[in-house]
């Protein structure tokens, strides 16, 4: 072959080109056909970024379907650092608006080239200020933020959420999987230089709304009276629980100290604690109802039996136990009415440790009640084999045993309803019903015979009429209950303190057909500290308002002077469908964790005054007529104003009127109601009366 010939050289070159082309085509086929999936995944990884968006949480409602927790759409700010030219200048400008050190913002911007969160779930005015800067590479994404329109109302029961809307306490934590939907996703597309050019937003579906057994008006009554008692007695902590004794439903669960779930980070841990289910205490004389009911149920005594109370002292082994005052011969009914320790101990010794232990366990002490809330304490009850020779005497009068308020009120409800112990319940229903349905309410367990319960009701009524609970006597209704004053253990000495005590009262009303059971507990009141002096009056105020609100018929005639002086109790409830967003859930960490009693006792029916127009740009108020509460809330969110919403239904009136200018951060008052035709100013004739305990109630006596 003559390589010098042009034809030969051309053939050789063509052959080489053909071989190279075949190799290139083979490599291309290998990459396109064999390695296609691998390279596609690598390209998507480089060009796309998936960012989780907070899931939309469903509403939490009271038994009358009033909103206690809701979610609203707000702006979150993110950056694409690859598009930012002067990072230092942008960090300085954003830091000034967000009240953050510029170095911190600059560090966030340096953490990624394609996407970085700057600030999430911003207040409307802050988002507007950032948008006004018109910075390249700074964008906004809508997210759902949790709001608690009633602020501190039922805060410990509701709980709170974190920045990602994960439940961290109360119902929000216990039913997180049901309330919380799957997180949404934001898909961000970037080019070869990591510059953002497109995104898609997948908003998640809502979870199941939770309907609670709580009635927001009864809850407000309980919290209002607890705050007043705390202010009056200077007690550092306390609790009020209201229960329907006929089915175990909790109608109110008030705690002190409390917190604002819209800003939980600014509150101490003790303020976020639900004392009604977690705070152990020795019940003191309230526990005598367990001792005496057990003995009566066993046929070991009767209300009329006379017991020698030894003038206030009894010896058990080498221990001398003294009464709070010397008593001689008392009937068993008088032992309970006057709260004689000696008389109760004698009955407890007659009952014996094994039987006594069985009744204590039957009443639910020493084990969790099963309420649908996290963090419940099981109580403190030593096993029978660990009892000492004086244990029967100590436990008979409520020492050497630890209980929670929910356990104690459930036991009292068992006496009120005829001897049946119901599991306390705070969740009424899920809406809509899903596969994650709630377990059914277990059937009640009989603790004592009906005749025993009837006997105990008569004896407990005597406590209110003639004994230590006289200050719990109601106007217009009969009442029964028991006082308790328990000494606290001094950690320094290991002995019972003479100054640190827990005052309590547990009772129910009316006596013959109980509609409510109420527990009041005050921890370490200053000054008068007996349960009959400081807790019983709180029971009276709560019970009278709740019974009037529930329209429970009176069974005791009112004195003429009381009838003339008595005001409309419904007007004192004060809450009356008020949703106060002023300021709209934007409390910061500087917000006091514990609301003052003055703030809690304010009457929210009085509309907040409209903020005067300040110098500067305002926003025009649109017409809100016919809008729902949620629609008005979202509109005000977008405008950056604080709504004060009064009533339920649709918007009827607003102040300032449509077209007025309101400064950002100002107040907009909106009144809601049900539209009624002008020809029939009264209520609809064929409309059945609303059930006081809500249409979803499983029943119960009134």
Mean pLDDT comes to 81
Low-pLDDT regions: 194-199, 567-616, 676-702
- Termini separation: 117 Å
- Range of strand content: 15-25%
Structural class: alpha+beta
Radius of gyration, in angstroms, nearest whole number: 34 Å
**Major sheet, described briefly?**
6 strands, mixed
> How many extended strands?
26
- State the helical fraction: 25-40%
Based on Cα principal axes, name the global outline: elongated
Number of helices: 22
Q: What does it look like?
A:
The structure is a single chain. Strands 2, 3, 4, 5, 8 and 16 form a six-stranded mixed beta sheet that branches. The chain has a five-stranded antiparallel beta sheet with strand order 10-9-20-19-18, with helices on both faces. It has 702 residues and is of the alpha+beta class. The chain is built from 22 helices and 26 strands. Residues 194-199, 567-616 and 676-702 have low confidence and may be disordered. Helix 9 packs antiparallel against helix 18 (531-549).
SSE inventory with pairings:
Blueprint (H helix, E strand, L loop, with lengths): L5 H29 L1 H12 E6 L6 E2 L5 E13 L7 H12 L3 H9 L5 E7 L1 H10 L4 E10 L7 H4 L11 H5 L1 H4 L4 E7 L5 E7 L6 E4 L3 H18 L3 E7 L6 E7 L18 H4 L9 H10 L8 E3 L4 E4 L2 E4 L6 E3 H6 L3 H11 L1 H10 L28 H6 L8 H12 L3 E2 L5 E5 L13 E2 L3 H17 L13 E10 L6 E14 L6 E8 L7 H19 L10 H6 L3 H5 L4 E3 L16 H4 L17 E3 L8 H11 L2 E5 L3 E6 L5 E3 L3 E7 L29
Parallel strand pairs: 2-8, 23-26
Antiparallel strand pairs: 1-6, 2-3, 3-4, 3-5, 6-7, 8-16, 9-10, 9-20, 11-14, 12-13, 15-17, 18-19, 19-20, 21-23, 22-25, 24-26
Helix pairs in contact: 3-4, 3-5, 9-18, 11-13, 11-14, 11-17
């Amino acid at each position: 072959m003559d390589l010098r010939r042009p034809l030969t050289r051309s053939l050789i070159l063509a052959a080489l080109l053909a071989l190279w082309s075949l190799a290139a085509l083979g490599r291309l086929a290998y990459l396109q056909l064999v390695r296609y999936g691998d390279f596609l995944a690598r390209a998507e990884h480089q060009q796309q970024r998936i960012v989780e968006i907070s899931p939309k949480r469903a509403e939490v409602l009271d038994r009358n379907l009033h909103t206690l927790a809701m979610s609203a759409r707000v702006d979150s700010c993110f950056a694409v650092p690859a598009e930012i030219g002067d990072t230092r200048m942008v960090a300085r400008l954003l830091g000034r608006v967000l009240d953050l050190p510029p170095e911190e913002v600059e560090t966030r911007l340096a953490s990624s080239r394609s996407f970085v969160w700057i600030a999430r779930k911003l207040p409307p005015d802050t988002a507007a200020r950032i948008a006004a800067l018109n910075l390249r590479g700074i964008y906004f994404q809508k997210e759902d933020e949790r709001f608690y329109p009633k602020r501190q109302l039922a805060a410990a029961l509701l709980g709170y959420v974190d920045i990602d809307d994960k439940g961290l306490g109360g119902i929000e934590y216990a039913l997180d999987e049901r309330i919380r939907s799957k997180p949404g996703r934001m898909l961000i597309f970037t080019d070869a230089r990591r510059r953002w050019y497109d995104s898609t937003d997948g908003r998640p579906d809502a979870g199941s709304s939770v309907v609670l057994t709580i009635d927001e008006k009864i809850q407000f009554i309980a919290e209002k009276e607890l705050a007043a008692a705390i202010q009056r007695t200077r007690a550092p902590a306390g609790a009020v629980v209201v229960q329907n004794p006929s089915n175990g439903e909790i109608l109110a669960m008030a705690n002190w100290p409390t917190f604002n779930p819209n800003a939980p980070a600014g509150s101490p841990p003790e303020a976020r604690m639900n004392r009604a289910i977690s705070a152990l205490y020795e019940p003191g004389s309230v526990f005598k109802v367990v001792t005496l009911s057990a003995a009566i149920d066993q046929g070991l005594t009767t209300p009329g039996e006379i017991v020698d109370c030894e003038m206030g002292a009894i010896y058990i082994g080498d221990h001398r136990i003294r009464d709070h005052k010397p008593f001689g011969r008392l009937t068993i009914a008088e032992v309970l009415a006057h709260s004689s320790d000696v008389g109760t101990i004698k009955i407890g010794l007659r009952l014996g440790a094994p039987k006594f232990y069985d009744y204590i366990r039957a009443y639910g002490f020493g084990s969790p009640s099963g309420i649908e809330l996290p963090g419940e304490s099981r109580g403190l009850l030593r096993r029978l084999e660990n009892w000492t020779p004086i244990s029967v005497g100590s436990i008979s009068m409520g020492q050497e045993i630890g209980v929670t308020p929910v356990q104690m009120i459930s036991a009292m409800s068992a006496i009120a309803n005829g001897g049946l112990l119901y599991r306390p319940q705070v969740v009424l229903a899920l809406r809509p019903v899903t596969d994650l349905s709630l377990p059914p309410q277990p059937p009640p367990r009989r603790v004592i015979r009906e005749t025993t319960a009837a006997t105990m009701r008569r004896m407990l009524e005597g406590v209110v009429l003639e004994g230590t609970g006289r200050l719990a006597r109601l106007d217009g209704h009969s009442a029964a209950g028991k006082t308790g004053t328990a000494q606290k253990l001094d950690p320094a000495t290991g002995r019972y303190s003479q100054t640190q005590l827990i005052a309590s009262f547990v009772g129910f009303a009316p006596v013959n057909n109980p509609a409510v059971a109420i527990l009041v507990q005050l921890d370490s009141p200053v000054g008068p500290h007996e349960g009959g002096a400081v807790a019983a009056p709180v029971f009276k105020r709560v019970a009278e308002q709740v019974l009037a609100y529930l329209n429970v018929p009176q069974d005791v005639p009112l004195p003429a002077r009381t009838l003339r002086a008595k005001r409309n109790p419904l007007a004192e409830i004060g809450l009356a469908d008020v949703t106060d967003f002023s300021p709209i859930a934007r409390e910061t960490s500087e917000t006091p964790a514990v609301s003052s009693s003055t703030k809690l006792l304010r009457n929210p029916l009085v509309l907040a005054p409209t903020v005067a127009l300040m110098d500067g740009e305002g926003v025009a108020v649109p017409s809100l007529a016919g809008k729902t509460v949620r629609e008005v809330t979202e509109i005000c969110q977008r405008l950056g104003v604080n709504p004060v919403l009064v009533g339920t239904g649709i918007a009827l009136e607003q102040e300032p009127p449509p077209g007025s200018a309101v400064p950002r951060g100002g107040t907009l008052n909106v009144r809601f109601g049900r539209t009624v035709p002008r020809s029939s100013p009264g209520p609809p004739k064929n409309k059945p009366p609303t059930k006081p305990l809500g249409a979803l109630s499983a029943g119960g006596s009134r």
